[in-house]
Amino acid sequence: MAPMAQQPLRLLDPSGRLDEEAASGLDLKDQDLVELYRLMMLVRRADLEATALQRQGELAVYPPLLGQEAAQVGSAFALEPDDFIFPSYRELGAAVVRGIDLIDYLSFYRGTWHGGTYDPLEEKFGMVSVPIASQILHAVGYGLGAKLDGSTSVSLAYFGDGATSEGDFHEGCNFAAVFQVPVVLFCQNNGWAISVPLSKQTIAPIYRKAEAYGIEGVQVDGNDVLAVYLATKQAVDRARATSRPTLIEAVTYRRGPHSTADDAGRYQSKEEIAHWEALDPIDRLGSFLRIKELLSEEVVSEISSASDELAAHMRGGVVGADPPDTADLFRWVFEEKTPHLLRQEREMLEEIQGSDG
Amino acid sequence: MAAALNSALRDCLRTDDRVLVLGEDIGKLGGVFRITEKLQEEFGSERVFDTPLAESGILGVSLGLALYGYRPVCEIQFDGFVYPAFNQIVSHVAKHRYRSRGRAGVPLVVRIPFAGGIGAAEHHSESPETYFAHTAGLKVVVPSSPLDAYDLLTQAIQDPDPVIFFEPKSRYWSKESGDLGKGSLPIGKARVVRRGDACTLITYGAMVTRCLETAAAAQEDGVEVEVVDLRSLVPFDLETVSASVQKTKRAVVVHEAPLTLGFGAEVVAQVSEEVFSVLEAPIVRVTGYDTPYPPAKVEQYYVPSVDRILGAIERVLTY
Lengths: 357, 319
Description:
The structure holds two protein chains of two kinds.
Chain A: H1 30-55, H2 69-77, E1 84-86, H3 92-98, H4 102-110, H5 120-123, H6 134-148, E2 155-160, H7 167-178, E3 183-189, E4 192-193, E5 196-197, H8 209-213, E6 216-221, H9 225-242, E7 246-251, H10 270-277, H11 281-291, H12 297-318, H13 328-331, H14 339-356
Helix pairs in contact in A: 1-2, 1-3, 1-11, 1-12, 2-3, 2-9, 4-12, 6-7
Chain B: H1 2-15, E1 19-23, H2 39-43, E2 48-50, H3 55-68, E3 71-75, H4 86-93, H5 96-99, E4 109-114, H6 129-133, E5 139-141, H7 146-158, E6 163-168, E7 191-194, E8 199-203, H8 207-220, E9 225-229, E10 232-234, H9 238-248, E11 251-258, H10 263-275, E12 284-288, H11 306-317
Helix pairs in contact in B: 1-7, 3-4, 8-11, 9-10
């Protein structure tokens, strides 16, 4: 294998200055740069709105992604519409890039439906997957399917640093390598698996684990959206052209709790949060865009009203949304209901009618 | 039966391009039981391929393949090796249609050689069917004869839902004359394999043969025993089983899996509820014991024997 390039890959320094040499492979036009900024702003607003909805009792739970906007937006932006995304449960940002209606996405967190209510095949965006690392294998299988079919689609799996301790991560890396699957294994190393820090998960850098499987491993500054985009684009292009898989480690930080049910104050220090606030991914790209004079007042105001609109859309759709039809409980266990299920369904419906009457 | 299963796989690979066969040692070797013999040679290593030795990986990757549009048939080498894949099966495979509101079912088949009686080492003789029958969204199928094995595997591969397909390994070498593919009984239907009026033996897998042997022995004593082969645990054919017990008024459930919460417990509960008023005796179970599957040298005391089943028949006849 080629010697590892200098890690982590970084194109923008925290003050927004571009490393021209490192950025030489970047294929983004000015309008793309603005779009990345716009998407990150929308994601942040949507994320805060979702947290607010949970606090008001409209969502059962919500896992915020504050601080991880660049990692999600930069990576999802590098994909074509036909590429399949396999998220874990903190990928609202990737869902926004994919254009999924967030009301459908959040129906998972409202307790309306386990997989969300969007169409995973239509959107090419897998259902929210909670069992840690399990979705990595689905991405590998899907990518293998695309390869066997001679398709140019690739797949991408999102997972966290904690997932790298699970067997499915290792099996996924190994299957991807052995079958040379066009897949991108995208780790958002946000420093924490609920309360357990990275140092208690692994003592080896995550991206270097790739070497043991014989695949490319890249570490990228996860708060630098341009670096994340470039690393992912290169991995996607490589997968499409040569079917070779890549493990990307985006080093970022979860500036909020694991979920709204968590109390991060018990394990995250104020100093650490402050450190990462200074490395905010949106501020960083914003500074760069200002240097390049791409953030006109008009653009800023459009983003602001689009954010308001998105938040209002979420609130309007989520607040008071109807629970699912009771018949849905039995509707999709199998393609056809078995006699056994029909009997149980009848009992339930009689019970409901009885209590209504 | 091994040859019938091999034919079912071959015919499905021939008629449906979406069918893939994968697992450990299933390529060149043809599987440790030779069920996939020569399939790789005929269909190539893109459709019939060995995987790394990782059962969770096999299931998770199969799910991804099914999502893409393939129909994976994966082999878990032995019953006792399915546990690493349990999370993928229970948390994802079983629930995928449900979670996606019917939009993304994952039609795939998990073939598992199961149960004992062949003098195998530890982890090679277990009967884990209850774990899967307990999980909503999985069909659980167990053939007992070569011709039925062909039909059930073909149907399982064509089924729109995931099927856990248990192959009774002590029956792999069993022979049966007849034409493949002539059976018409679908998954979800039980079969009365011997008629009788004194008592119904309800069973599946390798124990079907054991129950038929028992019925022949009982006949020598003038007792006509009916034998019902469940074929599929999920869906469970309560109708056929109940009709038989309605007639005989007595029943014994036989399986190799342990007693407590074994599938027999469910059979007893459902059948009792259905035909309680006609029962002349409680339904009893003859099963493996609530011990780990024992070493080969003593497994004959664990697996239900003709004598144990005869004893149970006597209990229900003399209750």
